[in-house]
Design brief:
Elements lengths: L7 H10 L1 E2 L8 E2 L4 H5 L4 H9 L7 H14 L4 E3 L5 H5 L7 H29 L4 H26 L8 H7 L9 H18 L11 H14 L3 H14 L23 E5 L14 H5 L15 E3 L1 H4 L8 H5 E2 L4 E2 L9 H6 L4 E2 L18 E2 L24 E5 H13 L8 H13 L10 H11 L6 H6 L3 H9 L25 H6 L12
Antiparallel strand pairs: 1-2, 3-5, 4-10, 6-9, 7-8
Helix pairs in contact: 1-3, 3-7, 4-6, 6-7, 7-9, 9-10, 10-11, 10-16, 11-16, 16-17, 16-18
């Protein structure tokens, strides 16, 4: 990650030293004596160093596993085993779930940190600090804060809003209620509006800009079914000419060389350090097939494509190979080896995904006969791939892509209509299809858009929110029609309304009994 020129570890240390941890995850705040503000944030580099930390490591508890469990396992795109994730497959998760607790911690910690940084930067300005670099940093924090509250609203619906954790602690009453979902969404939107107003139109690759905010606002408006506003914001991004589709779809997800590409509008930033528990991306082992494991790269395939998503791709869709490894999938650059002569012979000309070859001799045969290709960067540098440190790779996780904005625009034009042949909507929609090697459509329906979104963003943690925003009746229809089983044992589930949103973590309710009560308005 090269968002700034100074050393990231120093920046992270500075941020950590300004924070104290309280029992409740949403009450993380900096020290209140003002010492850090007085002696720091004197240069653009110091300020940028502080905000750069918000792009990486703080997201790890959600990005690593919770994103898969909630965004794709629950949505029917991924199959999983183990002990923590199957409840998201069959809708039996409870408030004690470790994945739910991890997601909660991440979003409320980031929300608290951004609030604290905003206060620190405002205080620095009041002390005579340079607004030229403090104001964009404040806007950057508003973007991150708005984004995490958008996640909070979609994950939990009615949820706490903590805009000033320091003041809350000083008040002596840290029992925060749940606020109604519409107000949580409005809070997120107001933060994104502040980001839009204060961010620059351009910045170094990886930093969010005014158009990142517009794109996230378009996504939020679409979620609220405010189609006119979603159309306006998506159109502003499209007309800016600052983004485009990466023509090699698969390359975006199997090489860090494509980090911060022309399609990426907001990404979780990763870099490899000598510390294997640092800020690397840990999706490589969680998704990679076991027959790709080497001395450099761990692979334990915790998440695999579901049978349902395997059947969702149209014939000829190149996104299939970019998203999944299936029988016959190859990568000639990757040349893994191990102690087996038969394995080494089988892989001599490059990696082969083969479900017939015996296991141990290069074969790969899991429950769904496929593995996820996205964010799997390979067996390590010594084996023809890029550098991998055990569990960690250096590839970024993209949260918002230009393809999303194009499909948001098409759906926003469609709105409540049964179908549309609007030229601009079709242009946006068909750009995504044509990149996938598919024929354009002359008219589109909501089903067309939802299908396109599913295969375009498969395994990117987004499909659950597309299902959820259709409402309970439609969500039930979608989920109960899915095959959530294995190649040998198809499985269908029964879906009930209580699973439309996640429960508040049990540990949080113990500390804050207000969270168990009915939600109240925030505004």
């Amino acid at each position: 990650m090269k968002l700034i020129k100074n050393k990231m570890l120093v920046s992270m240390l500075v941020l950590v030293l300004t924070l104290v941890s309280c029992k409740k995850d949403f009450l993380d705040r900096p020290t209140l004596d003002g010492t850090t503000v007085s002696n720091f944030y004197n240069t653009a580099e110091e300020v940028r160093g502080a905000t750069s930390t918000l792009y990486g490591l703080p997201w790890s508890g959600y990005e690593n596993r919770a994103m898969d469990a909630i965004g794709d396992v629950m949505a029917g795109n991924e199959y999983t085993g183990g002990g923590d994730d199957p409840p998201f497959l069959n809708f039996s998760f409870a408030s004690t779930s470790v994945r739910i607790a991890d997601a909660w911690k991440v979003f409320y910690k980031i929300g608290g940190w951004t609030s604290s940084l905003i206060q620190a930067f405002e205080q620095k300005k009041a002390q005579g600090g340079n607004a030229a670099f403090l104001d964009p940093a404040i806007a950057e924090c508003h973007f991150i804060k708005g984004t995490v509250y958008f996640y909070i609203a979609r994950l939990w619906g009615d949820a706490p809003i903590v805009n000033d954790p320091g003041a809350l602690i000083l008040s002596g009453n840290t029992n925060v209620p749940r606020y109604i979902k519409s107000d949580v969404l409005q809070f997120a939107l107001e933060e994104l509006k502040l980001a839009e107003a204060g961010l620059p139109e351009e910045d170094v690759p990886g930093r969010v800009t005014k158009y990142s905010a517009k794109g996230m606002m378009a996504k939020l408006y679409l979620y609220r079914k405010d189609y006119d506003s979603a159309k306006i914001k998506a159109e502003e991004v499209i007309n800016s000419g600052k983004y485009d589709l990466v023509q090699d779809y698969g390359a975006m997800f199997n090489s860090s060389a494509y980090n911060n590409n022309i399609e990426a509008m907001f990404s979780i930033q990763h870099q490899l350090t000598g510390n294997p528990w640092g800020s690397g991306n840990q999706k490589n082992p969680d998704r990679g097939p076991s027959n790709l494991a080497t001395a450099e790269a761990s692979m334990w395939e915790l998440y695999t494509p579901s049978m349902d998503i395997r059947n969702a791709f149209e014939s000829g869709d190149i996104r299939r190979k970019g998203s999944m490894m299936e029988h016959g999938w190859t990568k000639s650059e990757w040349k893994p080896t191990n102690s087996s002569a038969a394995y080494n012979s089988f892989m001599a000309n490059g990696y082969v995904y083969d479900t017939i070859q015996p296991s141990g001799e290069g074969g790969q045969k899991n429950a769904t006969r496929a593995n996820i290709a996205k964010y799997v960067v390979g067996p390590g540098k010594s084996f023809g791939g890029e550098t991998v440190l055990g569990m960690n790779s250096g590839i970024n996780t993209i949260i918002l892509r230009y393809a999303d904005v194009l499909l948001i625009y098409a759906e926003a034009v469609l709105g409540e209509q049964g179908s549309t042949s609007d030229a601009a909507a079709l242009s946006a929609f068909n750009k995504v299809r044509q990149r996938a090697g598919l024929l354009p459509k002359s008219s589109i329906t909501l089903e067309d858009v939802l299908h396109e979104r599913r295969v375009e963003f498969a395994f990117e943690g987004d499909y659950w929110f597309d299902i959820q925003r259709q409402g309970y009746t439609k969500a039930k229809q979608i989920i109960e029609a899915q095959d959530r089983g294995t190649m040998d044992y198809p499985q269908h589930v029964t879906f009930s309304e209580q699973y439309m949103f996640l429960p508040i973590p049990a540990g949080e309710i113990l500390q804050d009994p207000e969270l168990a009560k009915e939600p109240v308005p925030y505004y």
